[in-house]
Amino acid sequence: MKAYILRALIRALITMFFVATLVFIFLRLSPIDPAHTMLGEYATPDRVQIIRHTMGLDRPIFIQYFQFISDLIKGDLGYSYINKQAILPQILSVLPYTLELLMSGIVLGILFGVPLGIIAALKPNGFIDQVIRIFTLVGISIPVFISGIFLIIIFCLNLEWLPITARHGTGLQPRLLVLILPSFSVAFRMMASVTRLMRSSLLDVLKQWYITTARSKGLKERVVILVHALRNALLPLVTYLGISVNILLGSAVLSEMVFMRPGIGRLIVESIIGGDFPIVQVMIMFYAGIVVIVNLVVDITYSFLDPRIVYK
Amino acid sequence: MAKVIRFLKQNVFMIIGIVMILIIAGMALFAEQIAPIGPFKTDLTNRFSYRTDQHPLGTDFFGRDLLARILVGARYSLFIGIFSITLSMICGGILGMVAGYYPNSRYASIIIWFTDIAMAFPLLILGAMVAMMFGPGIDNTILALSIAYLPRFIRFARAQTLSVKEDLYILAAKSIGMGDMRIFLIHVIPNIISPILVMAVIWMSGAITVEVSLGFLGLGVPPPAPSWGNILQENLRMLIMHPSKVLWPCIAIAWTVQALNMIGDRFRDMLDPRMRT
Questions:
Q1: Rounded to two decimals, what is the model's pTM?
Q2: Is A22 in Cβ contact with B132 (below 8 Å)?
Q3: Fewer CB within 10 Å of terminal CB in chain A, N or C?
Q4: What is the mean pLDDT of chain B?
Q5: CB hemisphere CA count around A255 (13 angstroms)
Q6: Given this model, what pLDDT does residue B277 score?
Q7: pLDDT at A311 over 60
Q8: Is the Cβ of B203 closer than 8 Å to some Cβ of chain A?
Q9: Domain range enclosing A169
Q10: pLDDT of residue A168
Q11: Does residue A122 fall inside a structural domain?
């Protein structure tokens, strides 16, 4: 097992390296010139040239690349072009906001999705099942920013139950209040997918022989479902959670834009638009690293949940 | 008659979806008749107005008719969605098919590695990066979306080809000496095309969502073009004062995406009842 983890981590590092190189190339190919963007209205050709020289953008590509790689190895993630501050502290300062959004999105998704899926599977094609099917159809389709806007209009403008942004400081309560709506808008899709997944997975499990055995032992139906069926039905869910990190990160970007929250997604989008290459490079590597690590965690969790799986 | 009723009952959602798409496509097609003022005519004396006879949905920040902008925006979104997915389907399908047919080749390993990395990124980020590389504009947006969806099509086509490859008729064709190209054209493609089309419809709703998101972020089709993302971005500043200006584009977007999903969902069930959720 340890050897497997070690190899997976090495693979992760190699992937991150390749991704960093690809991103480096892509960014340099882009028609956006960071010097031009920085200067904005004051961009005359000679000023642009001076700024490019200070940034080191007019050196040959290979030298830039070499500098980039050697900085990375030293652990120096570089400085942002736009605001000249070190990148890592910037990322770390907004990371908690995105993490809390993602975590609450996942929690809400599972909290609502699993019970709904179970209820839907108990009486397939019944009335409740149909209603839940409609809900999942809507939940899967509705884009994040649209559900966000709807939520804002309903809860902030019409009902005035919740604030849109944290105007009253950074205490715990405003922060939690501001978290509610964005988490729900991110979680809708998750809820719908989890419901569907649980429903189909549970339906498959309920056909198995061991469920019939459990019932014929005289166990209460509740025990049969919650103890025997659920444990096996949860396996595909774990895999799905790994895949969904990808989708959730994308949703987080839009949610942060709509609700004007600080966060990683916003950082990367604004950097892409502003031509802030160093931040984009670091963020992309970061994403690639997250995905690989999450996949690794999912694999390991799987092997705990299903003792038949053995990793060599 | 009973057969018709049974067909309707089974495919209720798909039919609703098709009707919804026809409605929005029809309205987009006849935008000039429905909202004759046009999406570009500004009227700064009349900004943010509410419903009037001339402006059924009111006007936006610059006094432009909102209904006209939404309907013409539908053209952009539908056009971009259809073309980008079609392009991606053709290129990804071919690449994936070849990768699946020769699974032990160097080419296949490179393709798999590339798709693995590309699929690690959220669609929006991938689309944004490619859109940045190419710059704004409708062609570049189509290209960006095609590239964003390419890995998915490659993966899917490869998976389908891998399973089709083991079928007996392929072996029979090879044993009579049929060349690979002919096998592709006559045997492989007709068998993998239906699942790929189904996924294309499902992913088209995602493509439209990504296109709107790109417009929302300022990438994609540049203003003053009334793409839905642009409309949202322009009017979002005034969300608190004039929520209806944001609400109507949202309804249009949700309508289209929902319709496509309903159709795609039913297609997927028809194709493979085992995948039914």
A1: 0.84
A2: no
A3: C
A4: 85
A5: 32
A6: 43
A7: no
A8: no
A9: 105-260
A10: 57
A11: yes
Residue A11 neighbours by CB under 8 Å, 6+ apart: A292
Assess B258–A contact: CB distance below 8 Å, yes or no. yes
* DSSP letter assigned to residue B59: B
Distance spanning both ends of chain A, measured CA to CA: 6
B115 CA: distance to closest CA in chain A (Å): 12
**Residue B224: cis peptide before it, omega within 30 degrees of 0:** yes
- Rounded to 5 degrees, φ, ψ at B9 are -65, -40
Cα separations (Å) of B173 from A99, A184, A258, A275, B183?
A: 55, 54, 56, 54, 7
Residue B261, CA distances (Å) to A23, A124, A167 in order: 33, 22, 38
Distance of alpha carbon A78 from alpha carbon B167, whole angstroms: 54
Tell me what the mean pLDDT of segment A20-26 comes to: 76
The answer to the question of residue A65 being in a domain is: no
- Please give the pLDDT value at position A310: 62
Nearest CA-CA distance, residue A66 and chain B, Å: 22
Q: Which of B21, B125, B246 to mutate to test the interface with A (most CBs of A within 10 A)?
A: B125
pLDDT for residue B275: 46
Model pLDDT for residues B250-267, shown as the tens digit of each residue: 999 999 999 999 998 888
ipTM confidence score: 0.82
Yes or no: say if A142 and B256 are a contact pair by the CB < 8 Å rule. no
Of B50 and A309, the one with more pLDDT: B50
Q: What is the CATH number of the domain that holds A129?
A: 1.10.3720.10
Place of tokens 């839009």: A254
| Chain-chain contact of A137 with B13 (C-beta, under 8 angstroms) | yes
Task: Please indicate whether, in this complex, the C-beta atoms of B125 and A287 are within 8 angstroms of each other.
Answer: yes
A273 domain-assigned = no
Taking phi over 0 as left and psi of -120 to 50 as alpha, with beta for the rest, A84 belongs to: left
Contact (CB<8Å) A149/B239 = yes
Judge whether A229 and A202 are in contact, CB under 8 Å.
Answer: yes
